[in-house]
Structures are given as C-alpha cells and as structure tokens.
Design goal:
The protein has helices at about 1-10, 20-30, 45-50, 55-70, 100-115, 130-140, 155-160, 190-200, 200-205, 220-235, 260-270, 290-295, 305-320, and strands at about 70-75, 80, 90-95, 120-125, 145-150, 170-175, 185-190, 210-215, 240, 255-260, 280-285, 300-305, 325-330, 330-335. It is an alpha/beta fold and about 350 residues long. It folds into three domains: about 1-80, Winged helix-like DNA-binding domain superfamily/Winged helix DNA-binding domain (Arc Repressor Mutant, subunit A), CATH 1.10.10.10; about 90-185 and about 305-330, Rossmann fold (3-Layer(aba) Sandwich), CATH 3.40.50; about 190-305, Response regulator (Rossmann fold, 3-Layer(aba) Sandwich). The protein has a six-stranded parallel β-sheet. It has a six-stranded mixed β-sheet with strand order 9-8-10-11-12-14, with helices on both faces. The longest helix has 14 residues, at about 20-30. The radius of gyration is 26 Å and the shape is elongated. Pfam families: GntR.
Length: about 350
C-alpha cells in the first residue's frame, strides 16, 4: 500500500484539506486510478496510524465515511475492504417503509427525485411485522451512510433504533420516543383527525350512520380510532367500527371512512350496480391522499398529510445533515364524496 501512503502524504501539503478529507480523497483517487480494486483490503487502523501519523478516530471516521458511500465495507472485524468502485456516489441510504402503498410510492418517488442520481437508495418493507423489521435492521446495520425508517410503534423498536448513531437516522411517518439528539419528520394522527372530523360535522350529519373500517391487528394508526371514538361520543353520532368491508354489504345513507384503499375500491365497485350517487346516496371519507382519490368519482374527500412535502424535507435532511424534529398534522382535503 505504499502508493496509498504516498498519496496521503502528498495531500498533506494541501492546507485547506482536513486530515479526514486527505484520507478520503486519497482512497477515492486510488480507486479512480484503478490502483485500488474491488475486494482489495485497506491498511488496518494501526498500520495507518503508524504510516501517516493521524489519530485512530480520524482514520476510523474516514473509513466510516467511505462505508456510507458504499465504497468500503468491514468484514467481521477482519478489516476494511473496497466494496465498490463507483466513486460518484455521495451516500448510500437505507429507506425502510411499511409497504409500497400508493402514498408511500409518492414519498419514495419524491425522495428519489430530490436526492438525485448521486445517492444510492435501497428500499426495504417490514409490513408491520416485528420479526421482519428485526431482520432488516440486522442485514443493513453498518452498511449505509444514512437510515430513513418508518418504525413499528413499540418500545422494542425504540430500543433497536437507539443502536443506530443519531446522526445517521431519520425517523419518518410514525412517531416513536427517542432521545433528543435523534431527528424525525412524522405524522400526528389523533388530535388532527379529530379536528378535521369536527369540520365535517354538517356533512357527517347528512347520513344515518358513520362507519369506520379499522383492523386492530394491522398497521393502522391507533390515533385514528381514538379520534373517531372521541368524535362520535362528543357529537352523539350513530356510528360503528368494522374490521373490513364485506363485499355486497353496502347500504344507502351510510358514510364510510377508510384507512385501507382496498376497502374503498370494493365499496366503489359495489356502488355501481346499485346506481348509488357518491356524495348523495353514500358518503366516502379516506385516510392518506393520492392522485387517484383526487380524480375518481369526482374526487374522494381525504384526511392526509402531504407525503411529497415530507419526502422533500427528508431529502433535505440527508443532504444538509441539520437536525430536524417535526410532527406534521393531517389536513382535510374536501371533495365531492360527502
């Protein structure tokens, strides 16, 4: 590795460069000159200390920086190796989401566009399954420069996330308690859903019954159920909660509130043979907005955050590394379905 040590010593003469930058730039330079190839082992921390005279923490930080870009990997405490030769990559990002629902697709597409091609984004889905979530964290741990994670809201997951350095983690979508040095851009469900339902009180009162479809053993936010129950009790609304819509059970003069789009599509399908007019014979209210809900049947009223805005702010955090702690309340988007 004499050629690498010589390059580092050459870069020492460039005063504006920090020691960290000298190490990173030297390794990148030798990758680009093809003197370092994929699979090559880098000098050990002790060897680097002896040859270039930098502190151990400076060398470790440089290697970890290169790991974050996907250029270097560490193998079972045996050392650091060249993992990739694509030096144009700025950072490798692990994006962990619930599932590829339409609104999360909007988040991903905007996130991808905002970061640009120099960032590598690998997407993982845990489907609100704790075992899958644990497996994902095990597989991605230490392999990425940044982790953007939509967590399962349990104390165990909070403990797992604390193992990721705070400067490398951004929690999105669902809020979870973490120390103050961790960043998040998450939703608030209970109070904001309740406030939006109050705005809809005149429309809700047009219908004989208000029906929420909510599965207790799913990834549905419990805050929505709490808001619904508080609202119907306070305003004496005839209402009920069902786990899911049963095909063919549609009834006139009912207002249906959906969290799962699959239930919404089934109700819309059942309304056609009965010639029910959406917004008159039956009412429809859905959680999480998307382009389809904006246009079908004259538009479906939704209670939702702006997922594209959340994605843009998340991308800005990745690029700027400025701490962010933001809870985004849901907003009402009223259309013709009520």
């Amino acid at each position: 590795m004499k050629f690498l040590f010589e390059k580092i010593n050459d870069l020492k003469q460039i005063k504006p460069l920090t020691k960290h930058e000298q190490l990173v730039n030297a390794i990148i330079s030798k990758i680009e000159s093809k003197e370092l190839k994929k699979g090559d082992r880098l000098p050990s921390i002790n060897k680097m200390v002896a040859e270039v005279g930098f502190a151990r923490k400076t060398i470790v930080k440089a290697y970890e920086d290169l790991k974050g870009r996907g250029l270097v990997e560490s193998k079972n405490f045996k050392g650091y190796y060249i993992a990739d030769v694509n030096t144009k990559t700025k950072l490798r990002v692990a994006l962990v989401l619930y599932a590829f629902h339409t609104f999360q697709e909007d988040f991903y597409n905007t996130f991808r566009e905002e970061l640009g091609k120099k960032y590598i984004i690998n997407v993982f889905f845990h489907h609100n399954n704790l075992d899958i979530f644990k497996d994902i964290l095990t597989r991605i741990s230490g392999r990425y420069g940044m982790y953007v994670i939509a967590p399962i809201q349990t104390p165990e997951v909070s403990v797992l996330l604390k193992k990721i350095p705070s400067e490398k983690l951004l929690v999105v979508d669902r809020h979870i308690p973490l120390p103050k040095d961790y960043s998040y851009i998450t939703q608030e469900f209970e109070s904001s859903t309740y406030e939006q339902l109050k705005k809809l009180l005149p429309e809700i009162n047009k219908y004989k019954q208000f029906v929420l479809f909510f599965k207790n053993d799913s990834d549905y936010p419990i805050g929505i159920l709490n808001a619904f129950n508080k609202f119907i009790k306070e305003f004496n609304i005839n209402a009920k909660v069902e786990a899911q819509y049963k095909t063919g059970s549609i009834k006139k003069d009912r207002l249906y509130f959906f969290i799962n789009d699959s239930d919404l599509w089934e109700v819309l399908k059942d309304s056609k043979p009965k010639n029910y007019i959406i917004g008159k014979d039956i009412g429809l209210l859905a959680h999480n907005d998307n382009a389809i809900k904006e246009i079908i049947f004259g538009g479906i009223t939704t209670i939702s955050i702006d997922f594209k805005k959340m994605a843009k702010e998340s991308a800005n955090y990745i690029k700027l590394k400025e701490p962010v702690r933001k809870i985004i309340p849901s907003q009402l988007i009223q259309r013709k379905s009520l």
